[in-house]
Description:
Low-confidence stretches: 139-205
Number of strands: 18
Largest sheet: 10 strands, mixed
Strand order of the largest sheet: 5-6-7-8-9-10-11-12-14-13
Strand content: 5-15%
Number of helices: 18
Radius of gyration: 28 Å
Shape: elongated
Mean pLDDT: 82
Amino acid sequence: LQNPAAIFNMISSQCVGRSVCVFLVATYTDGRPTENAEWFCKWLEEASTDFRYGKSYLKGLRYAVFGLGNSVYVGHYNTVGKNVDKWLWMLSAKRILTRGEGDCNVVKSRHGNVQADFQAWKVNLLSRLQALAKGEKKSCSGKCKGGSSCKDKNEEVTSQDASAEVTCPFSACFREGGRGTSYICSDLCNSQMVKMNGGKKTEDDGERREMITPALREALTKQGYKLIGSHSGVKLCRWTKSMLRGRGGCYKHTFYGIESHRCMETTPSLACANKCVFCWRHHTNPVGTEWRWKMDPAENILQESIEKHQNMIRQFRGVPGVKAERYEEGLEVKHCALSLVGEPIMYPEINTFIRLLHRHRISSFLVTNAQFPEEIRNLEPVTQLYVSVDASTKDSLKKIDRPLFKDFWPRFLDSLRALGEKRQRTVYRLTLVKAWNVEEMMAYAELITLGQPDFIEVKGVTYCGESAASSLTMANVPWHQEVVAFVQQLADMLPRYEIACEHEHSNCLLIAHTKFKVDGEWWTWIDYERFQELVVVHEESGGQRTFSASDYMSRTPSWALFGAQEQGFDPADTRFQRRNKTKDVSGC
Length: 588
């Protein structure tokens, strides 16, 4: 699709030949086509209504369309595929097969996932192409408009693969592809499928599908995930590997005193309600606005998470450079970062999962994307609760996070208010994307006033390589000096907030509320043993005895402070500089 003139000539030439043009098109943000297909869709739309082309411009062209989309986006599902099909038909092109629709939403996908949707459509396409090659034609009685069956409706595709597929009762009309009847049959097919499924296009609640499809399992396993049950996963963070070798910990070690080699990065829900442009998972995880999948017990998820994490740690036994004492410590999980992928707060048993973590004396760092305000309010006390604040205006948030909810902005603001109601430690997590969201200083300050978080983490976006799901490049990654300048300007606008810590090798800084500055010293670290004691009292009292962030704070060491010579690197470790190696971008 890179040469418009060549494409126009190619399409025109097919009008007089025996070829068939197959269009595979995806629907992107707000129902728009992908970037490389924009010009084609624009041309096709204009041509379909331009009298200079005429209604018979593509007469003789035989075509088929398969669209890719996600039915979670209710108002824009497969819009591009539908439009391309319509515009071709308006120009008198001849449809040889009903439009196929691949649904990334495994809950509503007719065949379980988008790959299976395409395979089922492809079987029918190949069968139709074979019929065309033999010169076969199937006529239509013309009674489809009234809703009666076509005379050829009982003819079945004699393909072993196709025998298991749901056959459209009006498929004969699609095979004929005549103008006028095709779109009528398309609508009839949809309504008939509803009737065949008892008035529903999806399965009953008692027959919920698993979140992890075979294709998703293959993709995530290839990326290094250890999958758990039907919707959870765990992965070894690169900072865990680094600290095992004595090469330094992550920014949470610098800011809050966690032991990175004892931190387990996991999630009880791989699904997310956003499709952020900077997602380091390249959108291989499913999306959704509510829990519609089978659910695994929290006890099983935690047990398997710990076991799989320990197995990954054991792989470092005897590896040159790994410190023996840290290897032994690493086998005992002390922290859990619920930030691996997806939206952990979507998991209906998230509170049970958190309580189980604390009973194992594992601290909890939970990250949410600010789209589930009521779930935030109902959340049990966690060691530290994060909200991702990826943009400060409605337009930029829509552009960067690409949320599924139509009311994403009210949900976002209400989530910040819900965060402000929490008594335990709360954090705003800002990811700076150069040329996208670094110009909205005043708007960020207003959002901080709304939620009054204890801390504000500001981090430069991590470039994760090229992806069809994102247009980011290295030019969007701010230099550390640029992040520092942004943080300094932001802190100057916030009363009772100051810059506390820095982690230069993560391109990250911490702004803290001055209530954590006691007698001129910062206390941003966490007393983890004290937190576990407080949680036990809270649980035993049935939630009557609560506690606040100031009850389990600890003094921050000098090397972690902003302006220190170490720039946030623990002097107990030895910094290692990679040379000519692919950077591992995984981490919390």
